Amino acid sequence: MENKNGTILIVDDLPENVMVVEKTLQKEGFRTEIATTGKEALERIKAIKPDLVLLDVLMPKVDGFEVARRIKADIANSNIPIIFLTALNEPKYIIQGFKAGGVDFISKPFNLTELLARVKTHVNLKRTQEANEAFIYELRQTNEELNSTKTKLTELNGNKDKFFSIIAHDLRNPFQGFYKLTDYIHNEFDNLARSELKEMIDDVYHSAEKLNKLLENLLAWSRIQLGKISVRKEFYNLRQIIEMDIHLFDDIAKSKNIKIINEVDENINIYTDLQMFNTVIRNLISNAVKFTDVFGQVRIYNEIDKDGVSLYFEDNGIGMSPDELKQIFCIAKQSLKTGTLGETGTGLGLILSKELLERLECSIDVKSELEHGTTFIIGIPNSTDIDN
């Protein structure tokens, strides 16, 4: 049981010395432990972790200086203060004792009042040092937590600013064009030729389609930030998911003469939330088509290993610079980048995809080089079911 005043290990091979010191310390409320050899002292230290060691220098086999060196060599015990009890009062022995790790010397025959005062002083110093170290550790922990919180707040603030920027700019501008076009049709309807009207209605439709996609991404992203999106997983065939999503891009792919090739193994079933996974696939296909030149190619294929399935979205488009790669999943640092035919976007689709994949316990990586295309890789863990 730990004593409030501390535990003192007395190391001395002379019983009469031990008895006198032990009674003095116990009278002052210290707990005492005894060792009569250096070897026993080292064993006792490991067992009881004393607050201080009173160590005789002149002992058989292993002297006190060597015992002290071994105590200090063990990092777990290096903070235990050692007071030497010795009749060796020459300066060379005192220097040797301090080099071995001692904090004080008490000469034999010793004065019990002096011994007690020095023991109390060094026990208090040790406890003060331990308290200071604990306080410093707590300060460091608190500082790390504060820095982490500051980083998160900075990130959240940047996300908020970007979010409002998207609402203010990326939604406002399309809505203005949308409004002006519908206003023109409303006012000039009777004067418009059927072909002109059809062309304008097509423009309205495509504008509405883009706005709808942007709003869906914004709402999904905001639900994730608020923790209001739930995951409902079932098994689905991966190739069929890809095939259905590719069909949604038939028209825009044809308009740019881009081939979208589905090479995904037809025997792979994945355990996922279909709506969330579809959102990711559509964003990645949309991104690939947007930044691929006319007559380009988007290839979707997979690899299988012991960890699961890697799903690749590879295009031969305009690619990205190293700086763009670093910022691609950071909403606060997104900048407007137009597609090969001037298509606009906010970059929110990729950020949303990453967050959705994290909720699905999947990963996403990207490799890219300017003018040499981009490849996104989704890592699907081995809950995947691969038919034989």
Report what the structure shows.
- The protein folds into three domains: 7-110, Rossmann fold, CATH 3.40.50.2300; 156-225, Helix Hairpins; 234-386, Heat Shock Protein 90, CATH 3.30.565.
- Helix content is 53%, strand content 18%.
- It has eleven helices and 13 strands.
- The chain has helices spanning 15-27, 38-48, 64-73, 91-100, 112-188, 194-225, 238-247, 250-255, 274-290, 322-327, 348-359; strands spanning 7-11, 31-35, 52-56, 82-86, 104-107, 234-237, 259-262, 268-272, 297-305, 308-315, 363-368, 374-381, 385-386.
- Helix 4 links the parallel strand 4 and strand 5 (104-107).
- The longest helix has 77 residues, at 112-188.
- It is elongated.
- The two termini are 64 Å apart.
SSE map:
Blueprint: E1 7-11, H1 15-27, E2 31-35, H2 38-48, E3 52-56, H3 64-73, E4 82-86, H4 91-100, E5 104-107, H5 112-188, H6 194-225, E6 234-237, H7 238-247, H8 250-255, E7 259-262, E8 268-272, H9 274-290, E9 297-305, E10 308-315, H10 322-327, H11 348-359, E11 363-368, E12 374-381, E13 385-386
β-sheet strand percentage: 15-25%
Give the C-alpha Rg: 38 Å
Number of helical elements: 11
Average residue pLDDT: 85
CA(first)-CA(last) distance: 64 Å
Question: What best-fitting shape do the alpha-carbon axes yield?
Answer: elongated
Give me the CATH architecture of the largest domain, please: 2-Layer Sandwich
Strand order of the largest sheet: 2-1-3-4-5
CATH superfamily (homologous) name of the largest domain:
Histidine kinase-like ATPase, C-terminal domain
CATH class of the largest domain: Alpha Beta
The number of strands is: 13
> Low-confidence spans: pLDDT under 50, at least 5 residues?
none
Pairing-aware structural class of the strands and helices?
alpha/beta
Helix content: 40-55%
CATH topology of the largest domain: Heat Shock Protein 90
Largest sheet: 5 strands, parallel
